[in-house]
Amino acid sequence: MIRAVFLSHTAAPSGAELATLRLLTALRDSDAVAASMLLTAPGPLLDLMRARRIPVTLCDTDFDSRSLTIAGSGAGRLITGAVELVRLGARLGGAVRADGADVLVAQSTKALLMGAVAARRAGVPLVWQVHDRVSAEYFGRPLAVVLRVLGWAAVRGVVANSRATLRTLHTRGRFSVVAYPGVEDTAAAGRVPQRDPGAVRIAMVGRLTRWKGQDVLLRALTLMRHRPSAVHLVGGTFFDEQDYRAELERTAAELGLTVDFAGHVDDPALYYAQADIAVHCSVLPEPFGQVVVEAMRAGCAVVAADAGGPAEIVRPEVDGLLTPPGDPVALAAALDRLVADPALRTRLGAAARDRAADFGIAATARAVTGLLEQVVGRQAVPAR
Ligand code: GLC
């Protein structure tokens, strides 16, 4: 049995953390990996983990992880933030050793920095489970370069959430695997048949943050020949993103659009079940895009941005449509086509359900287990 401690700097219920929650749930009954969670901030994830009987430890600190933010923060702030993270890492090392861990798995870039120190202190190998594409467009060039080098130097293994994410990393001489963040095998909410063109409902699920491109959808809506009868933007603002939400609300009002800002919801299943069409339109390549798989699983007709993870998930014209990222004209055209054609929506939605079955959480757990076994140099444990 491999004892693995998963480390995260945030307990916000955003995509990467929810992926970790599902993975640790799937590993809970595993004979090969005993997984526990180490968090350095309080938040909803803590209770979500406890409710699922996942061993979780909070190593609370007054460190504000936002002092080390992506592109835009000054170099001075960045360095102070990094020093703080390293200090925290030393403390975490004690917790990891006390746990008798065989391996530490960092769940974010900040966790990678802390984890590099913690793993060294505890004398265990470090694995980096990467949820972000480590690119200049996302992190800014200097930080992307540093993360790539550090991520290579400090780790023995890498788990990437897509091939697109893996391609942004240095992995020479390291174990690596793509483990798509799978969905859980719960009963999907029943859905109504695809509506007539005059009554179509659109949902877009995802954190409200600029690179997720909610504004692209708003602009596309103004270009459509037939506006949908309802548009739901489902998603919260967790990391200083309130300004973007305010901007979206202003834009919607200025453009005369009626848009429902649903905020964060723990389980968006009902929104998917009610939506004829689900939109994903991140302007940067999406690392994976769990919302795309969730929408497909719910049988929505999906339009997603043609880059990163969604381009590995959606097979265009078969189980969804892809449009170039950041292109409201192309998005409007795709939406118009779908709105006008309920038969097309029905066909894509049905194929999408089948496709989503390729992205189950059990497969994720198997891929991660295999990588951890390689990293700690053990063979698979025979079933008891
Ligand atoms: C991050 C990525 C998202 C991915 C998730 C799970 O939130 O932005 O694309 O689906 O992590 O790996």
Report on this structure.
- This protein is of the alpha/beta class and 384 residues long.
- The protein has two domains: 200 residues, 3-Layer(aba) Sandwich (Rossmann fold); 162 residues, 3-Layer(aba) Sandwich (Rossmann fold).
- The chain is built from 15 helices and 13 strands.
- Helix 8 crosses helix 13 and helix 11 packs across helix 14.
- The longest helix has 24 residues.
- The protein is globular and about 60 Å long.
- The protein starts with a strand and ends in an 8-residue tail after the last helix.
- The mean pLDDT is 92.
- The structure holds alpha-D-glucopyranose.
Short description:
The protein is α/β, with parallel strands linked by helices. It has 15 helices and 13 strands.
Q: Give helix % range.
A: 40-55%
Please mark out the parts with pLDDT under 50 across 5 or more consecutive residues, or reply none: none
Ligand set: alpha-D-glucopyranose
**CATH class category of the largest domain:** Alpha Beta
Sketch the topology as an H/E string, one letter per element: EHEHEHEHEHHEHEEHEHEHEHEHEHHH
Judging from the principal axes of the Cα atoms, what is the shape? globular
The name of the CATH architecture of the largest domain is 3-Layer(aba) Sandwich
**What name does CATH use for the topology of the largest domain?**
Rossmann fold
The class by helix and strand makeup works out as: alpha/beta
Number of helices: 15
Distance between the termini: 11 Å
Rg to the nearest angstrom?
21 Å
Specify the biggest β-sheet.
7 strands, parallel
Strand order of the largest sheet: 3-2-1-4-5-6-7
Give the amount of beta strand, in percent.
15-25%
- Average per-residue pLDDT, rounded, comes to 92
Q: Look at the structure and name the CATH superfamily of the largest domain.
A: Glycogen Phosphorylase B
